[in-house]
# Entry
Amino acid sequence: MFTCTATIDPAFTIAPVPPRLFGSFVEHMGRCVYGGIYEPGHPEADADGLRLDVIELTRELGVSTVRYPGGNFVSGHRWEDGVGPREDRRATLDLAWRSVEPNTFGLNEFMAWARRSGIEPIMAVNLGTRGVQDACNLLEYANFPGGTYYSDLRVAHGVRETHRIRTWCLGNEMDGPWQIGQKSATEYGRLAAETGKAMRRVDPAIELVACGSSNERMPTFGAWEAQVLDEAYDVVDYISLHAYFEQHGDDRVGYLACAQVMDSFIEGVVATCDHIAAKRRSPRRLNLAFDEWNLWDEGRFAAQDGPDWSRAPRLIEDEYSAQDAVVLGNLLMSLLRHSDRVSIACLAQLVNVIAPIRAEPDAPAWRQSIFHPFALTARHAVGEVLRVEPVSPMLHSSTLGDVAAVDVTATRDPVTGGTTVFAVNRDEHRPATLRLRMAGEGHEVVEHVVLGGRDLLATNSRAAPRRVEPRSSTCHVAEPTGVSAELPPVSWSMIRTTPRATVTAPSSCRGARA
# Structure
């Protein structure tokens, strides 16, 4: 056992919790759409083919916004192929994932699903094989009231009201050699700027997201952002970040601490944005859209043979373990503590494809292990993010060097005065005592839940959908200046406290309930 401390003071805030921090991503890839959110004939599907069990879990997950339709898919996508009467739609080749795209699910079906799921849409436009005019046509179809060719076409397709899509992504990962229509930073920056200017003439109320680097390991990272923003800074509102994390070799500590990599990535992009603002003497402050992030064993995917032009092939349907849930919870903590600049974040993807929700043709959908830290954080991280500087022993990672054994983030609801603390113990062998020094009146713990801490490789499955779930813990005590809680080895914890006028005697730790 070791001890770490953190001070929780409502006077030290970072920013309000951004509602769109708890977004997700639906791409026409594998079985995310077909066999995921849309499966006509399934016992759980409605008359429109939308799987109601998936919608129910999406709501439970707390998803606030969803980016669509890609992803690499969008760079070869013709949106017109996915609207109008289904019997008139043509099947096409999806060059990104070497699949056959039936186009039976498109923009209007997605918007119907979004309304049913209670989420705000984020739409991406194709800047790989298409450009300015096509983006404006799509925006006109989606958002213009009527009286023009594309807006009247939407009405003819049975959608009288506009979709009122606020946020638009200008392409996807345009720096990547895998991308259809890859461009240099200058080429892309000029195209994004001109596309954005034209789109704002159609609808001045929209927000625009420029493509940042595909990941922080790209050789052009930093230079790409700077060159793109040199061209587009005055036009766009956000720049995107993408990152997928995995364990390298036997460095479990490094994997458990990959939130530190996310911290560094975000701070590097913020520095570049602010450098361009200073260079341009611009009063505008650009925010970040971390619109693809998750855990993904990319090495295993790279070793697989590509699909051979089938419809909705099974692609990267990774199973997530209890250990993965700990890591994902920590990544959410990183996003929270950068909420002054990260306004949008999208866990990629939502269903089946490296996703928190799994679905099969002949079974109800179920929750993967990573579903739980996301749902709990989305539900309870409300109000303002507090600035927390934990004091913790260090651990050594062969890939990252020294990292903190315990990481802590907190939010506070200014209405109730309640505080939610999220904590991760990265130590593989020792439990930690987290001592929270809390300003103001005394506090008591109203809920303490734990993920991980044991059976770290356990996963949920169709046969055992509840093997990995949060469990309640009574390993906490009230103290005159705050509370203390026990964090099991390799665990993610959520500790919810409320202020009280009188502090009762400390309770004893009676262990965790399975």
